[in-house]
Amino acid sequence: MRRGALRFRPFLLALGFAGSAWVPAPEAAGAVLAAQRSPELWIVDQGDATALAVRRLGGVEMVRLAEVAGALGGTLRPGDSERQAVLWFSGEPVRFDAGRSFVRVGDTTRVLRNPSVRRGGEWFVPLDFVALVLPDLLPGRVRYDDNARTLAVGEGYPRLDVEIASRPGSTRVIVRTDPPVPLEIEEGRRRVSILVRTAFVETAFAEETPRDGVVEHVDLIRRGTGYILEINTGRNYGRFLQERTPGALTLNLLRGGVRAASGADVLGESPAAEARRGRDPVGPTEVRTIAIDPGHGGPNRGAEGQGGVAEKDVALLVALALGAVLEREHGFRVVLTRDSDRDVALDDRIAAANTARADVLISIHLNASPSPAASGSLVYHLTPQAAGRAPAGSAVQFVPWSSAQAPFVPASRRLAEALASELQGLDIAAGGVADAPVRVLRGAAMPAVQVELGFVTSRRDLSRLSDPAFPGRAARALATGILRYQRSLGALRPTGDFR
Amino acid sequence: MTSARRRRTSGTAFLPAVAVGVLAACGVFPADESGSAPAPGDAATVARAGAETAASAIQDPEALEGARLFAAGPDGLLHARDVELPRFPTTRGRAEALVQRIVDESGTFPEEVQVLDVFVSGRGVAVINFTLDLLEGHSGGLHAEELTVYSLSHTLVESLPAIAEVRLLVEGRETETLAGHLDLRSGFGRAPERLLADADGGRG
């Protein structure tokens, strides 16, 4: 319940006794509230949701009594005079008197904030009749959620909890539903919305105002047959990352200027530091978080082809497209080591993937050769020699940075094979899988590959790479490859817990 | 010798000693087979190393010996080619001559790059110190980097039995990559089969 309404409630009741329809300050508060709330009153009965129009009559929000009766299986009949009406449910009759701020339920008088109104042959009652009186008239469990302006009849509705935590680099919003309900994300101007597709939720959450620069205000709003958790972003908001688990959706709303890779709110470790891992050497048994590393950036253009096609630009376009496909279509959490045209140190890229506890790392590059005949895609993983010696035992807590990739070389090879098989679908000759002492893969504490999408020095490859449609096609091929790798994990026998 | 080269030489005379220091810290102790071990920061050692190279060249200026040089072909693979080099009594001398031929003829090195020094340790590790042009002039691309590095290491390992591993320095320092892809902090030996035009890698 909003604080403004609570403050004015005694005043409203006093005015209601006087039968007056004039509500100065409370009406102002009500007007503010109404602007934010749904223009409808919802009645949900065992999953069936009915919307009743809310009208303003004399400055008071009201609903048609006949619609209330129809939605709940009641009967509305004329009273002893045209200024009286009787509403029947399964119990005692409810009698209304036009212009009176009370109703009679059998021999009991129930006071309303505002009077019932008869206009144009129709009866209208104030909303507090639905909130305060109706729940006592209907059989079974009935409750009214004033924030969502919803009257719910029956049991078995999902519970929704919202947890908000402000951190130095981000604000975390966790939405939990039990049992799980579909949650969809929409982003608009200065807002990120989570659509909750269920007719009614049991919840104690109405709104919260973090006002931490990233998130200004969070509101749970009824919208149609569902709800929207509307996150109003602040002036320091950059972008968000999502993570899904059964029954929960976590949004990390990042502070602008914070590298996307630091969405886990922990600074990447320096190359000299030791990476702490608690993973089984086989690798994770599922893929939930994917780190994508577009190679080069900023003044570091990478390889260049004729016409100024730069490795850094194509790599970024493919990475952004791949991230979008993975997040929006497959619900993965995606971490990008860069999402703009800037260079990032090689170890910082790895640190970002490690810090985010990514389940796989995919570094995206274009190839080049002094020989124009060299062409085709190739997916690299680290050679065992370059990876170093894998630590003994499965419950590894600390590993040297330079050996972090060692336990994951076999999984990296499987990931490379899965990606390479899908790159065959692109109109660039697929070279398959290779291993090499690739710099950016050392130190990665997860299956990691470097994808060379084609040669900028090959005329044929370059014509494909510079096609505006190429990033999207490559992204879909790589996404399919990741899914293929993910499916292959089901065939593995895990040897320990990973998280 | 051009004035630019003279300036470069005088300005980098100390770099081999720095390189020795770096490699000593890495557990690699370059020592010429003649038994003289350059010590870090020892300018006299640098001069002696240079003198040994010159002396070994003077010792047998007419004799030639064969070697196999692996150069990039039009197909993007390394092709073996037989070459002749002046015969040197030391592995270091032979390595130095072969490295210069690779840089000049393999087609995988930037045009401006120069070889500052070559050292060979008793453990068979050849360390080649290049000028910064190796990085600044490289065209980039993982495949191009592989050709550069493996044309060098495969040639040396195949032609000089005393050399088992090749490491690269740039201006006396370890460098992470040539152009952002291949990790140069590792040693290199034979090239992967996929880079070799000849399936047996040149072994007849």
Question: Overview of this structure, please?
Answer:
With about 500 residues, chain A is an alpha+beta fold. Chain A folds into three domains: about 5-155, 2-Layer Sandwich (Copper Amine Oxidase, Chain A, domain 1), CATH 3.30.457; about 160-260, Immunoglobulin-like; about 275-490, Aminopeptidase, CATH 3.40.630. Helices cover about 25% and strands about 35% of the residues of chain A. Chain A contains ten helices and 30 strands. Chain A has helices spanning about 5-20, 25-35, 65-70, 125-135, 310-330, 345-355, 385, 410-425, 460-465, 470-490, and strands spanning about 40-45, 50-55, 55, 60-65, 75-80, 85-90, 95, 100-105, 110, 115-120, 120-125, 140-145, 150-155, 160-165, 170-180, 185-190, 190-195, 205-210, 215-225, 225-235, 235-245, 250-255, 275, 290-295, 335, 360-365, 375-380, 400, 430-435, 450-455. In chain A, the strands form seven sheets. Chain A has a six-stranded mixed beta sheet with strand order 25-24-26-30-27-29, sandwiched between helices. A five-stranded antiparallel beta sheet of chain A has the order 5-6-7-8-9. In chain A, a hairpin with a 5-residue loop joins β5 and β6. In chain A, α5 (about 310-330) crosses α10 (about 470-490). The model of chain A is unreliable at about 1-35, about 260-280 and about 490-499 (pLDDT under 50). By secondary structure, chain B is α+β, with helices and mostly antiparallel strands. Chain B has one domain (about 5-30, about 40-55, about 65-195). Chain B is about 35% helix and about 20% strand. Chain B has six helices and five strands, in the order αααββαββααβ. Chain B has helices at about 5-10, 15-25, 45-60, 90-105, 135, 140-160; strands at about 65-70, 80-85, 115-120, 125-130, 165-170. In chain B, the strands form two sheets. A three-stranded mixed beta sheet of chain B has the order 3-4-5. A two-stranded antiparallel sheet of chain B has the order 1-2. In chain B, β1 and β2 form a beta hairpin. In chain B, α4 runs antiparallel to α6. The longest helix of chain B has 18 residues, at about 140-160. The interface of A and B includes residues 296, 367 and 442 of A.
